[in-house]
């Protein structure tokens, strides 16, 4: 027992650290499920330290009675906290050991103990107990942080244990092994993100081990193994390629590899990854085939060579007899296409185009979507694809989205569609009246393809589309605008077509010019997200890598806009910032987890930047100091709120992001200073605080203090009153550079949702004038920890009531907590009816607040957590 | 105890599979096949060797039971001869579908015997019936206690309807005889499936000991592409096949494709094929693949939607169609497939598919070897061949990867290869020994291999010994816990421990394990201490000499 003789006070001290820091002690325990994120109350802890029954060695116990252990473990599926089930041996019994433990152990490493007991249990003779132990290990692992070295040790330990049981006779054990190994692989990969690429070999090894499990005789094991294979990362090309071909490519891949002094078991020397996917896709059980297809597609992003070969296998899956598998295959292809790893070849066309005329509408639809993204290298393939789409259109005229697909194919292959346009123009020219009927799907389709050419990416080529096409396209306005999506409204499209078609019909040149311009502007900003947006609509769940790509390009655009501001092109900069924010919003809506949090953070950031730009423009325009609430004041307040939100509403801001926020805060305060024109003490003290904070953040050299902050610091040190600051404000602001980081770590968005039960304008709640009334709310909180202070902000017109929100009784885990409560509204107005506006606010604790405690309410530095909610009331007399 | 394995057939050869394994005194005969390229007695295994090896006078005494894995002739063909002519009257086991299909197969073979006018070794139709009456049917995973010691169990093997792998166990010694099996499922049959057993010996087929096949999907795609091209060009497709197995698989593939493409082009089965074999499949749904088992209540996949009623006159109908016809390799002498081939071969629009194997001399073989434009049937008639030829490459046998996978999965102590060609078997033996580290043999016909078998002994241990073991382990655990903090976690895995003790076999053969200090007490002797003084010859002395 490592922590036997540690003083109780010590352990008590260590507990909150464990709960707040990287170590997960938020374990639901056996005896009493504690609310997550809270240190156990004292009596319980006491019990843990002094267990009622002084049994002998717990491990002997657990290995001697695995059945009993398993039975209890089954009763409590999920993580088992061995702290409580393992009573410490009595100190008097083994003084020697205890003394040793006390000497070596500093702070109590709880997960280690859990892991150790579970590993011993996993060596037991009863298969159910073994399986349960492995599941327990997986649960521990899931919670363990990867950052700290303790976590790393745990991963290795779990992995070792799992590998030993890989050849177990019991299916249940093997199933648990696969899950555990898969989890270990993820942890290893996550750790290697931090570390240097020290041991990529281990990922290959795990891949091979999982592959050998994927040949198991048990269906469940196979399904699980293929699922785990799909989640692997950093697997070397050689192993990936081997997994596609049953023929052994290289013989010396793994032979004699020694990992951390541990010689590989001889069985792994043979390349067990060989052809694992070839086996997977011809499995008897469709669940296995589905899992194999998914993984095939998922791994494609790591190697283009692999992707090419994987495509061959996936294409063969189109003949599968189960619809689910075919659809999943299409999904996998779609996944590959969004990554740009789908290079269709001529040999695939027969199979693929067959899908476009499949009897099943779902299949047709999925195949079309892929076609809209894919790049066809040859004109012949392009033409056959178009022909097939037309055939499909003729067969199923109700499927109008084909036009959209035609447009995007055309757009993706500019020169090919120009070619089509040329032929079409000839056809139109030679056709006598009435012969070329525009109603025919074929002509419609070809026109759509033709007019898509100018939108194509390869702008360097001059693609001249005969104007006659455009004039024909006018009659298809509805279809064209439908194909374009909601980006462009019909009027501007019409004028654009007229303009291109050389018709003075809608001779309003300015309109068409405007359209062209706005189009070009949009193309710049929208294009980035366009493709993703389309896919986002389809998948509803965006991939991290993809999102980061687009975020990066958006941020580049933003930086460009910022420099544009320098050239006083404020209007345009503002537009670009707005569009970029919209883009991010779309992305954010479709993302979740820390990436979603980061995206909403960026939205906030862009908002702030936009406000800065606008504010700066106003300040430059108008230097006279006015009294009262002016536009700059409003903007400034908005900016401050925005900065505060960034500061407070995100948990786990890393250093880079915090520096970013602090600089913005500095800028905001500076602008405030220049707006007022004089230095108030409050503002100055804030500035000092921010500068100190920035210095503190950059102290260890991980970030560098920017020129901007350094300059302000210098001026500030020279002159404490701040008059020099105001004088130099222009030069200082010029120094401000945008450098948004894309490294966001484990960012979490703090937010809340407020709902009122059973109330709307049609169904108001009744009250008696002048008497208090209770309002019942459903509240969900995300990433709120116990030290946040939340308030309900309720206002009726001018009068405001704040009610402190005690969410300790809310249920849920560390991420989401929810509960319902009845909140009394103390005074009701003497009116027939009124609307109560309610929102959740959170107090900010930080240096920037002026900390004037209002009596009974929150400090004046708050951020709004939820949207404002209207609650309708009607006096009982009126009802 | 050892396991004696006498290979009577299919040793370094394909044909007349027959292995007699002696496990702990019980003799089990696995399969009893004929060699299709031989005639007369030479096509049967040399049964007399069993008597010679066992010393018994009749087969019933020598052999505990006969187990037949599946209904192919090279695994079942000699069974009526063995029972009715040689006079074996012990139990015979085979799976239900094998028992159902056996009469059809055996009767076919009997006709061949009659046709070829064998001088010896013939059996009559009555023999077949009498023989099959003795058969005890087996179900999958059903454990059968053949006698006091011998236990057998069947596992699913794929390959053909009703094929099984047989697990046999006497005491602690256990073996598996695979028969023919397929590790990859096809449209109508599942993949071989077996538990992880503790085996002393695995006897496996090795037909494709060196071949690694690519994905079955690719072959399916090629086949469908060829058919698609032909049919959409208005051509006719002739698929000559044997009745059971492949025909159903291909027909399911086409039926499915037709469904997806929404085609109305007719698919025909020539008479005889349909009724008989499809009926078996419909009856024996439990032995087919998972997909069929899942769906057959809603729709029995052997009720093909697009298969139409066929009449001979349809051969000359215009328009595209697909026709399945027997026999498989388009024999010169006749058969329906030959008749159709004569009509359809001259048009380049049409397509003829060929099965994986065609006997030398048949038209199929001629078409396979090169692309003849003209085939002489006899002196007067010839056929102009202008049609497309597509070679089918579906096989019901597992490839070398599958064999290795199975061996690896079962991890037996020894492996014996049968049912394969000698050089290929030698190659596979090398792989098994080097990659999996298992001793591997591939005996020729009539050779015998003996391997040691597991025997577990029950052993009692003194209380003292157990306490001392447990005590040591506890201490060891405690010591380890001290080590394990932070980075040393990995060591938690390595807590296998050795326990020291003395093994004592008493007069009544009971074995006991005890502590060192107990020994003297148990033996009732005094403890003597012997001290040794090492004598080191001195170097100087050597130099002095």
UniProtKB/TrEMBL annotation, chain A:
GO biological process: intercellular transport
Annotated Polar residues bias: 1-12
A GO cellular component entry from the record: endosome
InterPro entries in alphabetical order: ARM-like (IPR011989), ARM-type_fold (IPR016024)
Superkingdom to which the source organism belongs: Eukaryota
Residue ranges, compositional bias (Low complexity): 58-72
Location of the region described as Disordered in the Swiss-Prot/TrEMBL record: 1-98
Protein's name according to its UniProt entry: Integrator complex subunit 4
Biological source species: Digitaria exilis
TrEMBL record, chain B:
Entry GO CC: nucleus
Domain Metallo-beta-lactamase, first and last residues per copy: 15-235
Matching Pfam families: Beta-Casp, Lactamase_B_6, RMMBL
Domain Beta-Casp positions: 247-367
Molecular-function GO term, any one: RNA endonuclease activity
Main location: nucleus
GO biological process annotation, one example: snRNA processing
SUPFAM superfamilies: Metallo-hydrolase/oxidoreductase
Keyword set includes Nucleus: yes
Keywords (A to Z) from UniProt: Hydrolase, Nucleus
Subcellular location: Nucleus
Family named by the database record: Belongs to the metallo-beta-lactamase superfamily. RNA-metabolizing metallo-beta-lactamase-like family. INTS11 subfamily.
Name of this protein: Integrator complex subunit 11
């Amino acid at each position: 027992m490592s922590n036997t003789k540690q003083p109780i006070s010590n352990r008590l001290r260590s507990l909150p650290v464990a709960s707040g820091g990287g170590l997960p002690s938020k374990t639901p325990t056996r005896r009493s499920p504690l609310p997550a994120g809270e240190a156990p109350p004292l009596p319980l802890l006491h019990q843990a330290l002094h267990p009622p029954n002084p049994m002998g060695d717990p491990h002997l116990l657990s290995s001697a009675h695995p059945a009993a252990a398993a039975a209890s473990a089954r009763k409590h599926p999920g993580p088992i906290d061995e702290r409580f089930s393992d009573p410490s041996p009595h100190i008097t019994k083994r003084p020697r050991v205890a003394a040793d433990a006390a000497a070596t152990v500093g702070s109590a490493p709880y997960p280690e103990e859990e892991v150790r007991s579970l590993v011993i249990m996993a060596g037991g003779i009863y298969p159910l107990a073994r399986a349960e132990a492995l599941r327990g290990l997986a649960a521990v692992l899931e919670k363990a942080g990867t950052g700290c070295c303790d976590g790393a040790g745990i991963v290795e330990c779990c992995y070792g244990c799992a590998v030993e049981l890989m050849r177990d006779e019991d299916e249940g054990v093997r199933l648990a092994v696969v899950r555990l190994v898969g989890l270990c692989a993820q942890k290893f990969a996550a750790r290697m993100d931090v570390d240097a690429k020290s041991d990529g070999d281990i990922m290959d090894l795990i891949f091979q081990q999982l592959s050998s499990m994927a040949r198991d005789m048990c269906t469940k094991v196979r399904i699980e193994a293929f699922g785990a294979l799909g989640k692997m990362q950093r697997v070397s090309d050689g192993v990936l390629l081997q997994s596609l071909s049953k023929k052994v490519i290289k013989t010396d891949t793994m032979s004699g590899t020694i990992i951390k002094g541990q010689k590989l078991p001889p069985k792994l020397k043979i390349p067990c990854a060989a052809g694992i996917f070839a086996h997977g896709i011809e499995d008897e059980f469709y669940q296995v085939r589905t899992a194999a297809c998914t993984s095939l597609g998922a791994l494609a992003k790591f190697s283009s060579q692999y992707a090419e070969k994987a495509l061959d296998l996936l294409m063969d899956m189109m003949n599968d007899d189960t619809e689910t598998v075919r659809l999943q295959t299409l999904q996998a292809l779609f996944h590959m296409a969004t990554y740009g790893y789908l290079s269709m070849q001529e040999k695939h066309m027969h199979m693929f185009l067959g899908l476009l005329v499949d009897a099943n509408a779902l299949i047709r639809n999925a195949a079309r979507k892929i076609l809209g993204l894919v790049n066809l290298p040859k004109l012949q393939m392009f033409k056959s694809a178009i022909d097939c789409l037309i055939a499909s259109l003729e067969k199923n005229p109700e499927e109008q989205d084909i036009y959209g697909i035609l447009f995007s194919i055309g757009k993706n292959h500019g020169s090919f569609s120009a070619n089509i346009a040329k032929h079409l123009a000839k056809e139109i020219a030679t056709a006598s009246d009435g012969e070329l009927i525009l109603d025919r799907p074929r002509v419609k389709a070809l026109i759509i393809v033709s007019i898509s050419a100018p939108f194509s990416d390869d702008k360097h080529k001059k693609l001249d589309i005969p104007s006659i096409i455009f004039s024909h396209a006018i009659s298809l306005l509805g279809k064209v605008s439908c194909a374009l999506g909601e980006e462009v409204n019909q009027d501007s499209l019409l004028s654009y077509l007229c303009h291109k078609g050389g018709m003075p019909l809608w001779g309003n040149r300015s309109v068409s010019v405007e359209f062209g311009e706005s189009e070009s502007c949009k193309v710049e900003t929208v294009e980035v997200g366009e493709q993703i947006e389309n896919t986002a609509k389809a998948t509803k769940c965006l991939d991290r890598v993809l999102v980061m790509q687009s975020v990066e390009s958006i941020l580049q655009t933003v930086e460009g806009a910022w420099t544009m501001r320098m050239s006083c092109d404020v209007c345009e900069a503002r537009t670009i910032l707005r569009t970029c924010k919209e883009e991010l919003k779309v992305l954010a809506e479709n993302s979740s987890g820390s990436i979603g949090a980061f995206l909403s953070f960026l939205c906030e950031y862009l908002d702030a930047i936009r406000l800065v730009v606008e504010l700066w423009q106003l300040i430059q325009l108008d230097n006279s100091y006015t009294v009262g609430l002016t536009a700059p004041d409003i903007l400034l307040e908005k900016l401050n709120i925005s900065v505060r939100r960034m500061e407070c509403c995100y948990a786990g801001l890393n250093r880079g992001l915090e520096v970013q926020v602090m600089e913005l805060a500095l800028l905001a305060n500076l602008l405030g200073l220049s707006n007022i024109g004089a230095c108030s003490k409050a503002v100055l003290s804030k500035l000092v605080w921010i500068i100190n904070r920035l210095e503190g953040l950059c102290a260890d050299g991980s970030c560098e203090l920017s020129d901007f902050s350094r300059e302000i610091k210098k001026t500030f040190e020279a002159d404490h009153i701040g008059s020099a600051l105001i004088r130099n404000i222009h030069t200082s602001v010029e120094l401000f550079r945008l450098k948004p980081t894309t490294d966001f770590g484990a960012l979490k968005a703090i937010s809340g949702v407020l709902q009122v039960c059973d109330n709307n304008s049609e169904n108001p709640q009744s009250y008696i004038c002048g008497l208090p009334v209770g309002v019942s709310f459903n509240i969900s909180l995300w990433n709120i920890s116990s030290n946040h202070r939340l308030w309900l902000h309720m206002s009726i017109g001018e009068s405001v009531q704040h009610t402190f929100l005690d969410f300790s009784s809310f249920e849920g885990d560390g991420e989401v907590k929810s509960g319902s409560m009845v909140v009394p509204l103390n005074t009701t107005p003497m009116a027939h009816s009124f609307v109560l506006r309610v929102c959740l606010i959170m107090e900010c604790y930080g240096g920037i607040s002026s900390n004037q405690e209002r009596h009974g309410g929150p400090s004046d530095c708050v951020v709004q957590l939820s949207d404002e909610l209207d609650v309708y009331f009607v006096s009982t007399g009126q009802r | 105890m050892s396991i004696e394995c006498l290979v009577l057939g299919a040793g370094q050869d394909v044909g007349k599979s027959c292995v007699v394994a002696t496990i702990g005194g019980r003799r089990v005969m696995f399969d009893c096949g004929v060699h299709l390229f031989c005639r007369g007695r030479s096509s049967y295994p040399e049964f007399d060797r069993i008597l010679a090896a066992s010393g018994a006078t009749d087969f019933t005494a020598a052999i505990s039971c006969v187990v037949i894995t599946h209904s192919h002739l090279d695994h079942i063909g000699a069974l009526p001869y063995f029972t009715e002519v040689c006079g074996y009257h012990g139990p015979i086991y085979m799976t239900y579908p094998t028992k159902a299909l056996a009469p059809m197969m055996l009767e076919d073979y009997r006709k061949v015997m009659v046709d070829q006018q064998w001088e010896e070794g013939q059996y009559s139709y009555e023999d077949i019936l009498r023989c099959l009456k003795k058969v005890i049917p087996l179900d999958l995973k059903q454990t059968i206690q053949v006698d006091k010691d011998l236990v057998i169990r069947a596992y699913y093997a794929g390959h053909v309807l009703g094929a099984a792998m047989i697990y046999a166990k006497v005491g602690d010694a256990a073996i598996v005889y695979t028969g023919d099996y397929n590790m990859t499922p096809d449209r109508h049959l599942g993949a071989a499936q077996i538990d992880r057993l503790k085996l002393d010996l695995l006897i496996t087929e090795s037909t494709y000991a060196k071949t690694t096949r690519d994905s079955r999907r690719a072959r399916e795609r090629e086949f469908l592409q060829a058919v698609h091209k032909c049919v959409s060009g208005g051509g006719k497709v002739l698929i000559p096949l044997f009745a059971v197995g492949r025909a159903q698989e291909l027909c399911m593939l086409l039926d499915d494709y037709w469904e997806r493409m929404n085609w109305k082009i007719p698919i025909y089965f020539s008479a005889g094929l349909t009724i008989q074999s499809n009926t078996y499949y419909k009856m024996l749904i439990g032995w087919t693949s998972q997909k069929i088992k899942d769906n057959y209540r809603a729709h029995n996949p052997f009720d093909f939607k697009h298969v139409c009623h066929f009449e001979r006159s349809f051969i000359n109908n215009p328009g595209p169609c697909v026709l399945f016809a027997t026999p498989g390799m388009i024999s010169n002498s006749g058969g329906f497939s030959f008749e159709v081939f004569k009509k359809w071969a001259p048009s380049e629009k049409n397509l003829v598919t060929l099965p994986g194997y065609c006997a030398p001399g048949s038209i199929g073989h001629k078409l396979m070897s090169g692309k003849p434009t003209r085939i002489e049937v006899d002196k007067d008639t010839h056929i102009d061949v202008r049609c497309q030829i597509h070679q089918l490459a579906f096989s019901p046998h597992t490839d070398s990867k599958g064999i290795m996978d199975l061996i690896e999965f079962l991890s037996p102590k020894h492996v014996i290869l049968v049912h394969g060609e000698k050089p290929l078997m030698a190659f596979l033996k090398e792989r098994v020994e080097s990659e999996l580290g298992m001793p591997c043999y591939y005996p020729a016909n009539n050779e015998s291999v003996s391997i040691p078998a597991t025997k577990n002994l029950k052993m009692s241990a003194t209380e003292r010994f157990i306490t001392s073991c447990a005590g040591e382990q506890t201490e060891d655990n405690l010591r380890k816990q001290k080590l394990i903090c932070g980075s040393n976690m990995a060591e938690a895995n390595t807590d296998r421990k050795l326990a020291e003790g003395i093994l004592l076999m008493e007069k009544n053969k009971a074995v006991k394990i005890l502590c060192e200090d107990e020994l003297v007490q148990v033996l009732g002797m005094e403890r003597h201490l012997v001290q040794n003084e090492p004598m080191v010859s001195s170097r100087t002395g050597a130099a002095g000499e």
